């Protein structure tokens, strides 16, 4: 049946009886799902819950402060949250405040869209040393996420930081470390991060990839942006730019790959014979190196003093893909901080099937497999931690298509459910102090007001106490 016909029938079926839906996670995947469900089902009553008192997930905590244009999606999400058939309840944590089975008892449809709030591990020696962070921790720190506002990364012990991975998250954290702080001061960066960056002695950032310039996971727009930072010297070894027939083939099949290679080659040529200059900021692209172990400082026990890297070569594994293989040759880069930007990871919850290898909930077009009908996923929890905000539009469309089909076929939405009313009773019984959208609006107003004094779009509240106090303040 076509999606169009399914929508028409479903809308008619539910015009008299509400379809109670709970979406867990108020990031892009959650809000796009809510938007599409509201449009597809006249009878849908949607509650969006989030463990944080603030909505918008990755848009608030993940998008870099110097990318305000990406945050415009918030306007659309805010309209969805204020729709008469939609409600936001923050400070409600699935897994501790509520169980999945409790939610499923209350709602016809539960959509899990809580993203990827953990990190892939390298599983190598020294990974727990002080000064080794995941890029997510660092991003949450500079974005004022209340779980990481007290991280205190040491930016003063040396002039060098190493970033492992060459995706867009790696570029984000490199840019924040290297961009002149005068350019960050007027963004919504957390003040504790701005102050630390203003005092930072980091001048050299090594961006380490296990494969070559043709395979770097970053995108051209973001690469151009970092290459364009004022007074930043780019260092790329000429030898890393030589290409094999397999690389040529990859570039022939992907204009994006070719463009990135050309940009890197141009940057290498422009760098010329620069020898280094005291205080000058430098970005070193290091290719064909994989992390072997983290080195512990002799002077400062328990802290990282460098990374031992193994040189790699590429091996074709069919269908045009090349993987990195260690050569048994090693070298060190000394540094006082390492950021692992090798990918985010979703976290399982009790009662939910989970594919630990892929880090996703096993699903077919958003339908969670091996469970009673009515449970769905969307976003990074559904497809893994890749893609930009807009990718979630298509992802949500697919999940909502599956929901519509299941309702139409009679597998979902037939029984009586309590929806919001039952949720409110349960939260009250459990003494969970949820923050509704009006509570968020108070936080929002306070942050914007505080931002005026500092010439910023907002000054984020960065502790749980401050956020909850602002949400419950008298207006
Ligand atoms: P990503 O794009 O998947 O990049 C991960 C990087 O880590 C790759 O260079 C990968 O190398 C490397 N890596 C993975 N496992 C490794 C290991 N065991 N050892 C060494 N290196 C390893 O992930 P991401 O940077 O976290 O980004 C997540 C998604 O968000 C991406 O789709 C990204 O485009 C998007 N994003 C977009 C923006 C933007 O549009 N401005 C900003 C941030 C993020 P291999 O390629 O060899 O696996």
Automatic annotation (TrEMBL):
EC annotation from Swiss-Prot or TrEMBL: 1.18.1.6
Pfam families named in the record: Pyr_redox_2
Catalytically driven reaction(s): 2 reduced [adrenodoxin] + NADP(+) + H(+) = 2 oxidized [adrenodoxin] + NADPH
Keyword Ribosomal protein: no
InterPro entries attached to this UniProt entry: FAD/NAD-bd_sf, FAD/NAD-binding_dom, Ferredox_Rdtase, Ferredox_Rdtase_adrenod
Subcellular location: Mitochondrion
Main location: mitochondrion
Source organism, top-level taxon: Eukaryota
Annotated ranges, domain FAD/NAD(P)-binding: 20-182
Transmembrane segments: none
Keyword Ion transport appears in the UniProt entry: no
Gene3D superfamilies recorded: FAD/NAD(P)-binding domain, NAD(P)-binding Rossmann-like Domain
Essential cofactor(s): FAD
Coiled coil: none
Family: Belongs to the ferredoxin--NADP reductase type 1 family.
Protein's name according to its UniProt entry: NADPH:adrenodoxin oxidoreductase, mitochondrial
Organism, as annotated: Brassica cretica (Mustard)
